[in-house]
Design goal:
six-stranded mixed beta sheet, four-stranded antiparallel beta sheet, Ribosomal Protein S5, domain 2, kinase, Alpha-Beta Plaits
């Protein structure tokens, strides 16, 4: 795996922000088995971090709290970072660009299989970082095609801005005036299989994500809107993983504005009135469940 280096020891670094599903509506299913989703997505200022530098040969190294859990995947060739590197290199070569050997370092700060898009965020950050390292100028639709090949969440993570995604995640509309929310993320460190959650979903044709005829403006209106939306995967995920209900009520006990599960779980988030309350809540939750994951953060606002 090479020596573990601080991400700062690299030519350039890329953040891989956690992807938060503020709402997720399952609206149907395609003939190929993919579920059709409507999602309201924002990204947290907290996430994984990747470092890149030119090297004599391709290298990959890991650090961070959840790094050890990923090393087995890396050996098994099941690593999205390396898949992203290989796909981008193929595209670069066929477009006549050089894509020389690189050392990629992943600082894995996000829990694995936790419904906040960690692997997808890492893949997207790999594409962004190597584009910079290799000075690539590829057409945007080529990059989107690569991203979608890596997974339905990767195009969203490539944007890493507030957005609405529909279809299987490929139809994306950015929300430039979306506000930032102070937030606590919590995870019981129990992996939940996305496939199992979808299998337990009783209805596949739920109502779509509808916004008021005037798009919400500002913090208060968006909170009211998000409250009226839902995560259709939360009930089946709770039936598989009892810890989700415990986690949700623990966060709820800290008086957030609202609590919900993200993605297919088991991560839940609480939105708080301000960063001070979120910080106190996270510290208190950490005292109650020292072995679980709690992280205070805020979401990235739209680029209006």
């Amino acid at each position: 795996m090479g020596t573990i280096l601080a991400a700062g020891a690299f030519d350039l670094t890329e953040e891989a922000p956690a992807k938060i599903n503020l709402a997720l509506h399952v609206t149907g299913r395609r003939s190929d088995g993919y579920h059709l989703l409507d999602m309201l997505v924002s990204f947290a200022r907290h996430g994984d971090r990747l470092g890149f530098r030119a090297g004599e040969q391709d290298e990959f190294s890991l650090s961070g709290r959840f790094g050890p859990l990923l090393s087995a995947d890396a050996e098994a060739g099941d690593n999205l970072v390396l898949k992203a590197r290989d796909l981008l290199r193929q595209a670069a070569s066929s477009a006549g660009f050089d894509a020389p050997a690189a050392h990629i370092h992943l600082e894995k700060n996000l829990p694995i299989a936790s419904g906040i898009g960690g692997g997808s965020a890492d893949a997207a950050a790999t594409l962004r970082g190597l584009m910079r390292l290799w000075h690539l100028k590829l057409p945007e639709d080529m990059l989107k095609t690569i991203a979608l090949k890596l997974g339905a969440d990767v195009p969203m993570c490539l944007a890493s801005q507030p957005l609405v995604a529909r279809g299987i995640g490929e139809a994306i509309d950015l929300l430039p005036s979306f506000p930032s929310f102070p937030m606590v993320l919590g995870n019981p460190l129990v992996g939940v299989s996305t496939a199992d959650v979808f299998r337990r979903l009783s209805r596949k044709d739920n109502p779509p994500l509808l916004f008021p005829s005037q798009m919400p403006q500002g913090y208060g209106e968006w909170i009211d809107t998000i409250r009226n939306l839902r995560n259709d995967l939360e009930p089946p995920a709770r039936s598989i993983c009892g810890e989700i209900a415990i986690l949700s009520s623990l966060i709820e006990s800290k008086s957030p504005i609202m609590t919900r599960m993200s993605g297919s779980g088991a991560t839940c988030f609480g939105i708080f009135a301000d960063i001070e309350q979120a910080t106190e809540a996270a510290a208190s939750l950490h005292r109650q469940k020292p072995d679980w994951y709690f992280q205070v953060t805020e979401t990235i606002a739209g680029e209006a």
